[in-house]
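Model the whole thing, not chain by chain.
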Amino acid sequence: MRAALRLFLFRLAAGLVLTVTAGLGWAAPHLVIITSSSEGAYGEASTALRSQLQRTMPWVEIEEQGWEELATQRLEGSRMIVTIGTQAARVVAGLAPRQPVLHTLLPNSAFARLPNTPKTGGAVSAILLDQPAERQIALIRLALPDWKRIALLTGSDSEALNLRLAELARERQLEVREANVTADRDLYPALQRVLAEPAVLIASPDAQVFNSFTVQNVLLTAYRHRSPVVGFSSAYVRAGALLGLYSTPEQIGHQAADTVQKVFSGEALPPARPPRQFEVAVNTNVARSLGIQLDSAERLGNELARREGRP
Amino acid sequence: MIARWGVRARVMVAAVVPMLALAVVLTVFFTSSRLADMDEALTARGTAFARQLAAASEYAVFSGNRDALQQLASAVLAEDDIVGVSIVDRNGETLARSGMLDGQLPPLPTSAVLEPSTMIKGPTLRIIEPIRPNRLELDDGFTAITLGAAVHLGEAPLGSVVLELSLKHLHGKRDEMLWAGAGSVLLVLVGSLLLASHLSRGVSGPIRVVAHTVARIGQGKLGERVPLMGGGSLRTLAEGVNEMAEKLASSHEDLARRIEEATAELRARKEEAETANLAKSRFLAAASHDLRQPMHALGLFITELSQHAHAPQSRRLVQRIAASAEAMENLLDSLLDISKLDAGVLQPSIRPFALQPMLLRIAAEQRSSAEEQGLQLKVRTNDWWVDSDPVLLERIVTNLVSNAIRYTPTGRILIAARKRGKRIHVEVRDSGIGIPPDAQEIIFQEFVQLDNNERARDKGQGLGLGLAIVRKLADLLGHGLGLRSTPGRGSVFTVDMPMAPPPAPTQEEDNGRAPGDLQDICIALLDDDPLACAGMEGLLSSWGCEVIPASTADDLLAMLADSRRPDMLISDFRLHGPLNGVDVVHAVRKQLGEQLPAILISGDTGADTQALAQEASVPLLHKPVRPARLRALINRLHNPV
């Protein structure tokens, strides 16, 4: 009851402040969302973000802009900026606004390549696409307890992740087979090498190695070597990966809304972090073909979340 | 050139050319379109094979599985038309090869091709298809999100498939189709030629029928008609030709009829003219006969009268009467001559004779009348002989001389014979009034007299028949007749005749009796006209002859039976009763002997009379008989050479 009263009072105060600031010329919106595109994953993330903010912070004005027509003037007066997608992140980073900026829906490799923020710029953070190495290793241990060997293909964008993965795997008593891929012709020999004995191949979000052109041959090769593949999207699972570990745009949108809320409530911008929520997908056909017994995707996801300390 | 073509050729061309053009166009169009289709189909098939092979060999190329690639290549080679398969990787290294690649084509690319390509050279179609990795939509956001990153691994083609197809089969098909096309064009050509020939026969047939009919009409068969067939222009043509033929026939008939009419009229005119001529001749003959009888008697009486003694007054009268009678006789002679010449009964007897005596005799005869007019008449001649009829030639020259005397008022007249090569020219030259050039032809026509006609006729000098007789006689004898004249200066008439060699000199005839002595010659005389008979008897008696006169043949024969045998018989030709003079001569000769000389006298100048006398070889004298001539004839017959 007191909480409700406090919320009412807070809202009233905020309304007064808003009226005053409006009267003083603070007519600019509080939040600007810059999207790479209004469709697909970007649209889903944006919708999730706005719906949650409108529900929790209805007084916050939200303006959404495409990255193509973006100008510094449009960002004047806003309290915070959220970008969705690599393209939007790159444009906004180039402008170096004074407001705090939260980048979402971009891989770690892209975030790392953004231009450095000058000293005058505001705080910058991100919600990355990449699943944490711990989570991946945990999923493998959970779903495939009998498999003691993992295979990694490392390109230029996946060195750090694979390093972390290898480290964690070794901690968990898993054998690690690694190979570097720098050119087209290296892919098949690298696969041959790491899959000489059946191993769990972890696909990394490194477009240099795993992309739509190579993934079929990678999956075929892995299958021929009786090796399961862990992908990082539901499409991987549909294409023939045994397991998928990924976060949906909606989940990332919700996480971004939470962050915005915290910033608006006066907290500092947290550092860049992986997605909090995730999904697990299972291809039962592949499992059957490889003769692997698997729990359902839901149970695996719940169990993994539980082990990470969340309900 | 086309302008000289016939109907048939035109129809043939009109029928064949469009059909042939259509056949060629259709054949070329369909053959080329079919060939293009086949070409396209082969290329499409080859491309499909190449794509399938590229798709199928993707993983094998990715994994470098040469055995699998070799199997794939061999499998593809089993397909029709495929002669060579090669699968090369992105570096141009051959991973698998099956069959034979055409060496004439350029070498295979050494790097992976990005786009499919086809190439045709010679009998080979080469298709190169890149082997692309199968793209799988990952839908993870990473791919799109990492825009601007380096080129994705594996996006480049893995290699390429080279497929070679043989075009021999296609070319064989093409040749087959071309031959089939050419054959069909040929068939169409032959067919259209046959059809056109058939059609053109249908078109040109009627026209040829018309042409043949026209040709036959042209040859004069005006009864020919074109059978009416077909319609339109053909029918109009046929009708037109028929109409033309009818008009031609009718005009032809019309013309023929007119010619017939003209000919008939001409014939009628000719007959009329002939009838008129005959009538004229008959009239002349009758007139001369009827005139002759009294003239004959008159002449005989005058001669007898003149032989009696008279007072000078009476003698001059008798002389005048004699002259008048002679002039009248001359006129009658002229009429007689011209009628004889017109009748064509005069037969010239051409023989050689001496010209000189004749010319001298004529001059002697004419001299008296010339001197009466104060003219000088001279003869210049030589001892030449000519080929002519002496009687007729004498008549010609006499006429010319009397003509000259008549038209020469003063001066002289020359009768001259001149030698011109082998011919003799007898000239009658006068110094008379002359003849103008425009009249030099008409003076030879009958009854034409220059000068004052009235005056000339009044003088009793003639009828204008003299020169007409001269011309007709000269023509009859075949002698040339010439005239040179200048008005006021005189005229020269020339008669041109062949010269004859003189005969060997003969014995001068001499039978003891002086020429012209008729004393005591007994002459039997038969004439049914009592007046003429009396005149003749008187004349003969005055010459000293003994005359046995009779008026009928029977009387004569009866009298001859009991009298002195006559030396000669003189009979009129036309007698009362069934017999004529010739019959009487035959009868008397039968009684007294065939050698009895006989003379026929006739007032009839008809051709029959003449012919009968000639047939019986009896000399015929026409009435009025000139006493001198009769006397000469009696003398000649009584004293034959």
